[in-house]
Structure formats: structure tokens, C-alpha cells
Amino acid sequence: MTQTAVDSTESLLDVERLRADFPALAQTVNGRPLVYLDNAATTQKPISVIEAVSRFYREDNANVHRAIYQLGERATRAYEGARGKVADLIGAPERSIVFTSGTTEAINLVAYAWGRHNLGPGDEIVITAMEHHSNLVPWQLAARDTGATLRHIPLTDDNLLDLEAARTVIGERTKMVALVHKSNVFGVVNPVAEITALAREVGALVLLDAAQSAPHLRLDVQELDCDFLAFSGHKMMGPTGVGVLYGKPQLLEAMEPFLGGGEMISSVNLTESTWNEIPWKFEAGTPKIAQAVGLGAAIDYLEEVGIDRVTAYLGQLSDHARQVLSAVPGVTLFTPAGGSSVFLFNLEGIHPHDLAQLLDQEGIAVRAGHHCAQPAMAHLGVAATARASFYIYNTFEEIDRLAEGLEQARRFMSG
Ligand code: 7TS
To answer: Does ligand 1 lie within 6 Å of residue 209's CB atom?
Structure first.
């Protein structure tokens, strides 16, 4: 994106100009311009990211950390350079940044490499009732394998974390508190400072699932004071197949490896091995080299737009969405006040899957289902909902088209 794409005087973002950077947004569906509103699932990619991946394969492709030749050194520089960009993005030292395949693998890494060696009967892991399955199932497995107990912080009737209950759920037995920073179903940013303070009182570790917050908010791990933080590149305009685990260096150093293989060792004989230094101790095998390079380009793009402006623009879009969606008769909005970028709703008399299909006829892409958060659906008392989620290239007009699409669906259903 060129510098002129950002207009700080008139509106927060010059979205029309910015959209030109995203080739996938230019297409039509059924003759109507695509309205892509499934950004919590994955975001579209700007040309600079697509080009960075392509350029890597065309010019710099070699394996990393082992080649003596110049091409290999360039590949290593590109890969490690991307780590530096991630580290700068979240205010962390480079050695605390582990490249994983995504949020899911990052959380599994902690649940295995930390959980299996530090949990036992009598210990408790605390999650919340609004977790994505990625931050739930790994802890169910860890509890099953270690004899630890999995507990959760319930939700209030307003679909927020019940902080009163959190004070009793987090206790002397708690060893790990793993919670979502920004919810992929409610769009709310959880009060992680309060939860972290409760965890600190009892000496528990804190893992933040930042899959939805990293694309939307400026994160600083020193300020957040979390022990682990996980996010995915593909939800912040980067390629699929790469994500990040941040861990406090002293914790990563004390942990056993997750996967064994090449790259993660210092020396190997036929009976035993010693481990590489962090972060490479946790990067077994040929890493996600081109993907990490693409993530680096996505971070450059995000920084050029300005993350604070991203947050503010998404806030404006969300205010508009709340207004127009709640004006459609028959719409139940589950997103609490304060929730942004993610709007969870149902339309009376129509199953969310049918609704998504009708909207698709109009070129509007929304998600329908349980959004990998079945306990949150259970809290709402529904099996499924529709969900519209926004990112920086979405416009006010697109949200109006969604509202029109809902009106049409309502008329269609009432015959
Ligand atoms: N945590 C949260 C809060 C998420 O929203 C997601 C993906 C994940 C973890 C898993 O990320 P992954 O990159 O490892 O798959 N959320 C969604 C969603 O809301 N719709 O599709 C994927």
C-alpha cells in the first residue's frame, strides 16, 4: 500500500484505495460485487503479501539454518527477519517467538510441552465458556492425560465473562489460566488484566488466545504480562500455515520439546539427544519459511496502515453495523455492547445455514454454524447462528448490503 492510501484528516482509512491492494475483493458473485464478511475465519491477502511469498520462491528459496551457500543464507535471513517483525509487533524478544502452523498448534504446543510435564491430579486448568475449540480441546486432552481438572469461567446473561465467578473458579489449585483475548463469537475484548491479576495471586500461568485480537489491536506482551500468547498469520492478512507462539523465555527454556526431529536438536546419538536453544527447540523439521516471510509482509502492511487506525475504523464499522442490523425486524443480535468486528445474529424463522445461502446468492459471504465455539452456543441456547465479521477493507456500504440482504431473506421466507 502506498502512503497516500491513508488519509488521516477526512476518514480514518481511505478504504477504496486500500481495497485495490486486495485482488480477491475485486470479484463478483452472481453478478454482484463480493461482500466478504467472514474475516474472523480468515482475511484476504494484499498484493504485497502475495508478492513476498512469490518472490521468496522465485529468488530466495533454500532450506534455512544449514546452508553454507549464499542462497541459503538469504533464505535464513528472510525467515529470521520475519521473526524479528513478529517480535517488534508484540514487544517481545526474538528468542521468545516460535513459529507454529497457527493458533491451534501454538496452544497444543503449550498443552503438551508444558502441560504434560507440569500438571497432575489435584491441579486445575481454567478456561472460559467462550473459548474457540482450539483453546478447549487441547486442555481437555491435557486434563485427561495428567489427571488434572478442567474448570471454566461462566458467562453472564450479557455474554460477558462472569468476573465474580472467576474469583472463585481461579484458586490455589489453578496452574494455568488459558483464555481468549478477543472472542470470535461475541467480538468482546476480555478483561485480561483482571484475570491475569487473579492468576498471579495464586501463582498460575496465563495463556492468551490472541487469534482475533492480534489482527485488530496493538498488543504488547510486556504490558499484557501473559506467559504465553498465540495467534495465526492468516487472520491478519498473512498466508495460511503459519502462526506464532510467544512464551516468556525462562518458561520456554525450562520446557521440554513438543515435536522431535531436525532443527530442534543440539546433538544426537543413538540413545539420546540434547536440545537446540529457544526458539528453535520448538521448531522441529523444515519450518514454514515462505509462510513466515509472507507474515512478515503482512505485518509491514498492518504497520503501514497503523494498528491504532485499524482498531478505530473497525469500531466505526461496528457502530454502524449495530445500528443497521438491529433495525432489521426479526434479527436477534448476540454481540454484547462493546463487542466489535464480529456480529453474531439470527433471523427469526430461518435457519442460519439457509440464511447464509440466501445471502450468498447476493454475493454476501457470512459464516453460519457454531463457529468452533459450541459451549458459547450452548450458553445462548442455540445450535447455530449466522456471523458477519469485518476487517479493514470492509465498507459502510457493504454493511448496508448485508442489512438489505437480511430484509430480502425475511421477505422471501414470509412468502
Ligand atoms: N482461537 C480463536 C479465538 C479463533 O477465532 C480461531 C479461529 C482459532 C483460535 C484457531 O485458529 P487457527 O488459525 O489455528 O485455525 N477462528 C475461526 C473462526 O472464527 N471461524 O473460522 C475459524
So the answer is: yes
Cα separation, 299 vs 85, whole angstroms: 7
pLDDT at 11: 65
- Residue bearing the CA closest to ligand 1, atom 6: 211
Choice among 141, 150, 333, 372 that is catalytic: 372
Instruction: Report the Cα 227 to chain-centroid distance in Å.
Output: 17
Spell out the CATH class of 50-304: alpha beta
134 within 8 A of 185, measured Cβ to Cβ = no
How many CB atoms are closer than 10 A to CB 106? 32
Secondary structure class of 342 (helix, strand, coil): strand
Q: Are 208 and 161 in contact (CB under 8 A)?
A: no
Q: Is the CB of 385 under 6 A from ligand 1?
A: no
Pick the residue whose CA is nearest to atom 22 on ligand 1: 41
Q: Which residues pair with 205 in a beta bridge?
A: 176
Decide: residue 200, CB within 10 A, 0-12 exposed, 13-18 middle, 19+ buried: middle
**Residue ranges for the chain with pLDDT beneath 70:** 1-11
Residue with cell 497457527: 102
Distance CA 138, CA 135 (A): 6
Q: Active-site residue 372, yes or no?
A: yes
Q: What CA–CA distance (Å, rounded) separates 4 from 10?
A: 13
Element (H, E) at 309: helix 307-326
Same fold, 5-33+306-413 and 50-304: no
Hey, what CATH class is 5-33+306-413 in? alpha beta
CA dist 334 → 158, 161, 163, 188, 273 (Å)? 9, 14, 19, 11, 52
The ranges assigned to domains in the chain are: 5-33+306-413, 50-304
Pocket test for ligand 1, best of 232, 342, 385, 387 (most atoms within 8 A of CB): 232
Say if pTM beats, i.e. exceeds, 0.70.
yes
Ligand 1 in reach of 102 Cβ (< 6 A): yes
Verify whether ligand 1 is closer than 6 Å to residue 40 (CB atom). yes
Instruction: Judge whether 279 and 83 are in contact, CB under 8 Å.
Output: yes
